[in-house]
Amino acid sequence: MTTAVLLAVVAWIAFVVIAPRLSRRLPPAAATVGLTAGSVVIAGSGVVMIAMLAAPWIAQLPEISELGPWSATKLRSGSPVPLAAAVTFAALVGVAVVRLAVTGWRRARAMAAVRRYCRHLPATDASLVVVDSQRPDAFATPLPSGRIVVTTGLLRALSAAERRALLAHERAHLEHHHAWWVLAADLAASANPLLRPSARAVRRAVERWADEEAAAAVGDRALVARTIARVALLITSRERVPAMAASGGDVPDRVRALLAAPPRRRLLPVLGMVAMLMLTLTAGIRVDHRTDTVFDRATVPEAGYGLRHGHR
């Protein structure tokens, strides 16, 4: 089991350190999917693995031991994990669950607030809402009932071509459900704080994804680069809402990417990310198998189980 745990830790650290860098060599859509899926797998398998390591000791608690056909004494003697480590693992699982619940609750409340705000705004078409405000701003709200919200102050500051690029960018956020990719990565990072760099990389990737979609829609990469730079300069402050905006992410990096050639498909970074995830899953399966073995060896024969629980 020690080997499996070490393999898992190596895979986690490798993903945290390497995956965000590898994602920069991928097209933004592939980077978004790969980083988000990888973060969810790392976070989920990590919590499950830690829970498995603590399970033989948790199952010894009188309230839990009464529920299963195992002997607490045999579990105590057969557990490969010291008591102090098991207590630490159980605490880590509890913290991860609490952090996940708190983050999910806060995001749900914020999304509900944005949805209530946009519900009463007039829409010029199925998704576009123009707000009469001098403050320059633009963002896309999450689906369902996703809207593109743009202020008149921003629209007046942009040329007609720049407005087309801006709306194409925001429309890409809606069409590809970018807010949900970001939310999944953020939830994974709340369960495992080591994944915060990956969550930031996902935010960057979805902005690059929308940039590339906008460039394809308007047929002018330089125009989209100029537009996001101009919007970023115009928007100097804005409230934190669960929305995707053209001014988000690393704007200078996005401008440089748009002024370069479109990103190419690369196989090697994808294989590297897949290898790290496969290593994680393999280690998790080995820990799960070892834990099952501990419980199997501690199982009380059916007759003894009945006598232990007062059955006749």
UniProtKB/TrEMBL annotation:
It comes from the Bacteria. Keywords: Hydrolase, Membrane, Metal-binding, Metalloprotease, Protease, Transmembrane, Transmembrane helix, Zinc. The chain crosses the membrane at residues 6-23, 35-59, 79-102, 267-287. Its cofactor is Zn(2+). The keyword Protease applies. Pfam families: Peptidase_M48. Binds 1 zinc ion per subunit. This is Peptidase M48. It comes from Planosporangium mesophilum. The lineage of its organism: Bacteria, Bacillati, Actinomycetota, Actinomycetes, Micromonosporales.
